[in-house]
Specification:
heterodimer; A: alpha/beta; Amidase signature (AS) enzymes; eleven-stranded mixed sheet; 17 helices; 11 strands; about 40% helix; globular; B: mainly alpha; two-stranded antiparallel sheet; 3 helices; about 35% helix
Chain lengths: ~500, ~100
């Protein structure tokens, strides 16, 4: 069995027993990236030399008998929205091309503290705005299941890297579904922790009241191990929660759902949902019931307004956060010829440096926050946010977790929604409510849609600081649906099919 | 109410984004569709519903006042588009007659 197809937990076992070195594991993944990333384009930057050197250090420390973290020596991909001193951080934007941050984010620092080996930076929609990774300023990422289809977004690079076996673990950030929707369409696991459960320090901000870093993996236990490594209080993030990290690893190991009340959200299904997505979702719910869970139906009537509220709140925060890209202190500067004013240079730089989606959202935010519209738009959206949170509170009185499909369809074709922003936004219909309310949620694979043979994701939502429940349900699904995804190479357009030809 | 290219140009000006005529023509109808769709939020919430600006109900988060070193000036200026005399150098900020 090749080192790149192993789970992170398996690699951790091999490493701790010294049956394999961190250098060998890292080299195997770098080789895999070199072999397939031309087709997938999951990585924007591969930090090969530093990764190998870090791996050698871990091997030396282990040989010296030092006590290391449970994932020490395991490679990890990092979404290009997190700073890592010395490695370029572009957020998928031309406006940050070539910018090398002078500091390291808390998330990456915790990976390093745990002895993990950052392989490089993964591709994303520009400033995490999008559901397909087609909005990257450096070219789209391709879904390893079918290279003509999108890997989801904004964290399409982090999800595709897992599905293509380029990395056993990756980290992402989730503002409206950017971890969960890519996980869903690539057959991987992606978790949005409770807001404030993971630090935003060094995460380039999109919408600060929604942005949540989180773990991505191929197995539920792997995601839990990574969650444990990166989560927890950070004094450098003023919205970090000062509370213990829930026992996510214990929950992923237990997989016991007996007596658990599982609430199916009535509003997240029906018209607009692909038949194969609904079929696999219903089957998974039935399996959980057979395993001893109690299934109830719940209603969250205000969820239908979540998308609208999100597309006012998020752009408002975006228009403010992205004002920092002003061509003065870092990043691109266009037109500074000695005659133009700072304001003109600013406008020229932002006009050329930002892509369409970023411009659209900044303009919507500017509109929503402008005098005369503020109360009607931004103010009303904030009230809807309250109503959605109340829907969750009420539902969690009768259910321990809520469930839905992660996204209404399987991976769509590249180019299909690029010129129709509203249809692109609908990919996040089911994921957005948890960002608005701040509770935790995750996506777990539940097989392939019969009509197209592409992965379907199952979303689990739990109350704030009950992240362990996500892993309990996810692990149960993983055990109830062994080999559900079959071979990655089953589809003619897949990466594996292309490799077989070579 | 339809959003015109002129409206978009005004908003883009406020946001300091230079847009070409072609971009204005392309973005205006897209933005109009999005704004019409999100306007449904105005139908839902009554006067009595309080606004939520943030999922966490935190008030005045303090940390201990510990002095820590700043980032090295050279490291920060190394990434500036233009630096001079240990400072960021910027285009002129005043008009000709000011």
């Amino acid at each position: 069995m090749s080192l790149t197809t192993r789970s992170a937990a398996e690699l951790a076992g091999l490493l701790s027993r010294r049956e394999v070195s961190a250098e060998e594991v890292t080299a195997a993944h770098l080789d895999r990236i070199a072999a397939v990333d031309g087709d997938v384009h999951a990585f924007l930057y591969v930090d090969g030399d530093r990764a190998l050197s870090l791996a050698k250090t871990i091997d030396a420390r282990r040989a010296a008998g030092e006590k290391l973290g449970p994932l020490a020596g395991v490679p990890v991909g990092v979404k290009d929205v997190f700073t890592y001193a010395g490695a370029p951080t572009t957020c998928g934007s031309r406006i940050l091309e070539g910018w090398i941050p002078p500091y390291t984010s808390t998330i990456v620092q915790r990976l390093l503290d745990g002895g993990m080996i950052p392989l490089g930076k993964t591709n994303m929609d520009e400033f995490a705005m999008g559901s397909s990774t087609e909005n990257s300023g450096y070219g789209a990422t391709h879904n390893p299941w079918d290279l003509d289809r999108i890997p989801g977004g904004s964290g399409g690079g982090s999800a595709a890297a897992l599905a293509a076996y380029e990395a056993p673990l990756t980290v992402g950030s989730d503002t409206g579904g950017s971890i969960r929707q890519p996980a869903s369409v690539t057959g991987t696991v992606g978790i949005k922790p409770t807001y404030g459960g993971t630090s935003r320090y060094g995460l380039v901000a999109m919408a600060s009241s929604l942005d949540t870093p989180g773990p991505c993996g191929r197995t539920v236990l792997d995601a839990a191990l990574l969650h444990e490594a990166i989560a927890g209080y950070d004094a450098r993030d003023s919205t970090s929660i000062d509370a213990p990290v829930p026992d996510v690893v214990g929950a992923a190991s237990s997989a016991d759902v007996r007596g658990m009340r599982i609430g199916v959200v009535r509003e997240l299904g029906g018209e607009g949902y692909a038949p194969g997505v609904e079929q696999r979702f219903d089957e998974a719910v039935a399996l959980l019931q057979d395993a001893g869970a109690e299934v109830v139906e719940v209603s969250c009537p205000h969820f239908e307004y979540a998308l609208a509220a999100y597309y006012l709140i998020m752009p408002s925060e975006v228009s403010s956060n992205l004002a920092r890209f002003d061509a003065m202190r870092y990043g691109l500067r266009i037109g500074d010829d000695g005659t133009r004013s700072a304001e003109e240079v600013m406008a020229l730089t932002r006009g050329q440096g930002f892509g369409d989606e970023v411009k659209r959202r900044i303009i919507i935010g500017t509109y929503a926050l402008s005098s005369g519209y503020y109360d009607a738009y931004y103010g009303s959206a904030q009230k809807v946010r309250t109503l959605i949170t109340r829907d969750f509170d009420k539902a969690f009185e009768v259910a321990d977790v809520l469930v839905s499909p992660t996204t209404p369809t399987t991976a769509f074709r590249m180019g299909e929604r690029v010129d129709d922003p509203l249809s692109m936004y609908k990919a996040d219909l089911c994921t957005i409510p948890s960002n608005l309310a701040g509770n935790c949620a995750g996506s777990f694979p539940v097989g392939l849609a019969p009509e197209d043979g592409l992965p379907v994701g199952f979303q689990v939502m739990a109350p704030p600081l009950a992240d362990d429940r996500l892993y309990r349900v996810g692990a149960a699904l993983e055990r109830l649906l062994p080999n559900q995804l079959g071979a990655l190479g089953a589809l003619p357009g897949s990466l594996a099919a292309k490799e077989a030809v070579r | 109410m339809a959003l015109t290219p002129d409206d978009v140009a005004r908003l883009a000006g406020l946001a300091r984004i230079d847009l070409s005529d072609a971009e204005l023509a392309r973005l205006a109808p897209q933005l109009d569709v999005i704004l019409q769709s999100v306007a449904q939020v105005t139908e839902v919430a009554g006067e009595d519903v309080p606004a939520t600006s943030h999922a966490l109900h935190l008030v005045n988060v303090f940390r201990t006042d510990v002095v820590t070193p700043s980032l090295p000036v050279e490291a920060v200026l190394a990434m500036a588009p233009h630096a001079e005399d240990n400072r960021f150098a910027v285009p002129r900020i005043l008009g000709e007659e000011e």
